[in-house]
Amino acid sequence: MSTVRDVVSARPDHGTDTARLEAGAAQLDRATASARLGCVGPVRLGPGSGAGHGEVAQLGPEADPLQIGDSPGSRSFNRDSGSLAADRHAVAVVEMAAAAGLAHVPRDARDPGATTTFGVGQLIAAALDDGVDTVIVGCGDSGTCDGGAGALQALGARILDCDGHEIGRGGYELAHAEHLDLSGLHPRLLDATLVVAGNVHNVLCGPRGVARVFGPQKGAAPDQVERLSAALENWVRVLERDGIGSGDLRTGPVTGASGGLGAGLAAVGAQLRSRFDALLDSGLAGIDLDSRIMRADLVITAEGSIDFQTPHGKVPAEIARRAARHGVPVVALAGSLGEGAPAVHEVGIGAMASILTVPMPLSQAVAEAERLLIDAAERMMRMMLLGATVSDRARRSEDARYAVR
Q1: Domain locations in the chain?
Q2: Which of 70, 139, 151, 178 could share a disulfide with 198, CB 3.0–4.6 Å?
Q3: NCBIfam families attached here (predicted)?
Q4: Which of these, 145, 140, 164, 168, lies nearest to 55 by C-alpha position?
Q5: How far apart (Å, rounded) are the C-alpha atoms in residues 374 and 32?
Q6: Is 146:170 a contact under the CB 8 Å cutoff?
Q7: Which DSSP string do the residues of 26-58 spell out, in sequence order?
């Protein structure tokens, strides 16, 4: 009888405002074992759907806490402590979400035009001060929309208005930006490599610009979205004129990552890369995903919510694209299946299912996430084994007919 021998279970670390499945890959392994399957994995990948959180976790216990702060008077919900990790190869990973993630902003106080990436810049500066050669900034789960201006300010840049005065922090302030003074920029930015790892589908401006697409998710009302969009249009004009980077900062890939952090850092020479490729190609993930996929009969991935956004740079879609190169099927489990979820079939996810069996409050789903995931994975694997049995019977029946002839 045909069986699925080897399984790779790959999952993002977590999603924005969704259940964090801390032991997700291990739970998938338990489910496949229960269904009497072999498992090549687990493979744990970060960042997740938004992906900011998770990169530092790849480096394990070597990550060190770092105090970050902001100037009095600016309305910032930056976390008062961020995470910075460096490996033996002088590569540092900075988590955007640790310093300025949406999860740290109280729901009733969310306003992406008032928050800042200043703390992210402080983490980058700390990495440069430690003498690392490469800094990778993981984008995702951000609560900001300041075009990376705060990060540049923390790195020594001055953003001036038409009267030569420094503007304040936050996305709304970018409407007053007239000149970017880089004379005081951190000196190590000139000899270190700065990589922004983000979603290639996120752009700074235009109809699909970051303010319009993600502003409402971060708490912006319609009038605030338009205000931010106009401010970012002005900001990119200044960046492209006064920055030292190159490329299309307005609509280029990754420019809109984490509220425009990509564009701001690209203006001082940062490389903008797919977060998925940056993590794997840097070696920080500690795995050769392609070789694992090639050895597998099936890939299982998981996501907090699968919807119309999933095909556009989310980790499950990127895993599916890699698996498609090797002809390996992919199935996905999700906390919820949202609007446009069937679009994932176009990127190589052959089947998907929600882990929920009955309607329940989010708090209950989070509390029971481990059990729900294990049960859903086992149900899915038993269905696949049944399908393999049916296929095997059909093949043997067809062979028998040919033998009679």
Answers
A1: 6-43+288-403, 67-73+86-278
A2: 139
A3: glycerate kinase (TIGR00045)
A4: 140
A5: 9
A6: yes
A7: HHHHHHHHHTT------EE--S-SS--TTTGGG
CATH number of 6-43+288-403: 3.40.50.10350
- What are the DSSP calls for 365-381, one per residue? HHHTHHHHHHHHHHHHH
Distance, CA of 359 to CA of 364 (rounded, Å):
10
Report pLDDT for 20.
42
Nearest to 344 by CA among 374, 313, 369, 375: 313
Tokens representing 353? 């299912």
Which range, 126-140, 254-268, 283-297, 325-339, has the best average confidence (pLDDT)? 254-268
256 is written with which tokens? 């809109």
Residue 305, SS3?
strand
CATH 3.90.1510.10 assigned to 67-73+86-278? yes
How far apart CA 197 and CA 188 sit, in angstroms, is 20
340-344 — which CB contacts under 8 Å span 24+ positions?
Answer: 340/307, 340/308, 340/309, 341/306, 341/307, 341/308, 341/310, 343/308, 343/310, 343/311, 344/306, 344/310, 344/311, 344/316, 344/317, 344/320
Residue 54 has pLDDT above 50, yes or no: no
Rg (C-alpha) for the chain, rounded Å, is 23
